[in-house]
Amino acid sequence: MKIRIYVATYGILERMANDLRPDMIPANVELVPMNLVLNDLSVEAKRLEQAHEADAFVATGGNAATLERIITSVPIVQIRPNGYDLIKVLQDVSLRTDRVGCIFYENSMPDVAKALEGLKDLINLSVVSCSYSTRRQLEDIVRGMREQGIRDVIGGSLALQAAAEQGLYGHYLVTEAGLTDAIRTAAKLVETRHQEVMQSRQLSSVLGFINEGVIAINRDDVITLCNPSAERIFGIRPGEAVGKKVYDVLKNTRLNIVRQTGVKELDQIQDEGGIKVLTNRVPMAADGVVIGALATFRGVHEVEQAEAQIRHKLYTRGLVAKHHFEDIIGCSPALRKAVDEAREYALSDATLLITGDSGTGKELFAQSIHNAGARCGKPFVAVNCAAMTNQLLESELFGYEEGAFTGAKRGGKRGVFELADTGTVFLDEIAEISPETQAHLLRVLEQREVMRVGGEKIRPVDIRILSATNRDLREMVRKGQFRKDLYYRLNILSLNIPSLSSRPEDIPLIFLHYLKRLCPHISDDVLSSLAEMPELREYAWPGNTRELRNIAERFSVLSHTNADYRQIILESLARDPSPLPGGDAPWKVQRQPSADGIRAALTSCDGNKSKAAQMLGISRSTLWRRMRELGI
């Protein structure tokens, strides 16, 4: 940034400014001498200021005093002699005379005059000081000094010019070093002023842009800042609040009290004539001393709108229930009973425990309950409690503050309960949480409030909690593996999802649903025929609907290269006939009976096919199918 500095020069000062070497002034400074004084100077300087051509003025004596009276928006730096300059000029004078006159414009340098008076005794010098305001006064003063026998005069350019006209010898106070110091000071002032202007513009832009209202007061409780948002929130006319006492503008303010006590007040509700706002009040300090206070404001309705936007973002991020009761496929009495119960529970806001084997669709029911209830459209956040370590689960559920542990995000993180505020939290595999987390979860259920990991602040939450497990929580309570009080808080309402093996009539419907979605290259008639394969009903389905879907997905892949569709399904069912740990064998039939085996069974049972099937460990329909295949 190029800085243009005008120097009010005259006589000796003009020659001194013109003789300055380039290396004596900052590289970004353009020095412009002005060979003008007093009234002529004031006219030109005012023009330069109004035309924004001057960044700063440098002057001395009467010229500096003149500029200070008329210039209001541009820095003015007065050239002042230092202690060395004063001693040097007095020494020079003492070599010539024992009496000297000091002439300054309207006491423009009172400190210099006092310094000269103090130093005169050191060198036995008599000093006569006078000031002038017009050229005629200056001429009269110089004439009077000459009549008193004074032959040497100390002063500025104009004073020394008048002295020379009367035959007196002049001593100039300003040195080259003093001039360059003034120029550097002016350049720094301009740079600082430019930075302040930029910062002020940035601050004004920020305060004008943000939706939060901001009001600041000084140590006298006078409002020094009131941004447009604060004016809008409280219905204040633009610029009307600044300069007034804060309690005259806001009747229920506590900003003055915060200034007095130095204690911040956060997340407070303030009511100003029916206008309710959420406010934070903090003291402002400098060097450990409170010099004022600042408050931010947000209208309560704006907070609600912001929360709605956050919930919308959560929706777009996937924190939402996508399924409804209409997505639950099946016509069996057991399933319809579970659906009917779930619809009733959707009308309640009570905590619900969903039980059922793995893969039965517990989350499908949880999402459907959420979407059929009053919290529909609000956040739905599902957490698999068995998929995380205890520490990670706690930080996910409750959130954490900055610095709570190694690796904690800057600014902290909101937990699941905060994210799901006004909505539903689904805790899957609830039986897997640790005793410590069980205790913290119990507090959420009883108090509907959370505390972040590493935090001290209690945060209220409005949530419904649905949980699910495939384990016997009652037995775990009996063994001391699960808190009894937590179990009863979770089990206010209970819902059991029937396993797929207990409702075989639903298997064709569900399998056909998956096939139609995954196999558009196969006709619906063929898919319907495949869904009715008796082997599907005879399979034990330890993985329930999840396993049924997996087989449908495997079929969709292999059916592109293998036209024997039934064989693909049979091979998929027989891929792992061994029992799962702690479970039954997935196949009710462990092997296909031979023709001799079937004949022997029939002979032993006197032709009773039901008893023969039971002896062979197969169903009666399987026996009939196998007999047809073998031609028996």
Whole-number total of structural domains: 6
Integer-rounded radius of gyration: 47 Å
The 3D shape can be described as rod-shaped
Q: Could you describe the largest sheet, including whether it forms a barrel? A: 5 strands, antiparallel
Structural class: alpha/beta
Helix content: 40-55%
Strand order of the largest sheet: 10-9-13-12-11
Question: Number of helical segments?
Answer: 27
Give the CA-CA distance, first to last residue: 104 Å
Q: Unreliable runs, pLDDT <50, ≥5 residues?
A: 577-591
CATH topology of the largest domain: Rossmann fold
The CATH architecture classification of the largest domain is: 3-Layer(aba) Sandwich
β-sheet strand percentage = 15-25%
CATH class membership of the largest domain: Alpha Beta
Q: Averaged pLDDT, please?
A: 86
Number of beta-strand segments: 22
Q: Looking at this structure, what is the CATH superfamily of the largest domain?
A: P-loop containing nucleotide triphosphate hydrolases
Structure description:
By secondary structure, the chain is of the alpha/beta class. The chain folds into 6 domains: 3-79 and 179-190, Response regulator (Rossmann fold); 83-173, Rossmann fold, CATH 3.40.50.10660; 210-299, 2-Layer Sandwich (Beta-Lactamase), CATH 3.30.450; 325-496, Rossmann fold (3-Layer(aba) Sandwich), CATH 3.40.50.300; 500-573, Helicase, Ruva Protein, domain 3; 595-630. It contains 27 helices and 22 strands. A 5-stranded antiparallel β-sheet has the order 10-9-13-12-11. It has a 5-stranded parallel β-sheet with strand order 15-18-21-14-22. A hairpin with a 2-residue loop joins strand 12 (275-286) and strand 13 (289-299). Helix 13 (333-346) packs across helix 14 and helix 20 (507-518) runs parallel beside helix 23 (544-558). The relative contact order is 0.05.
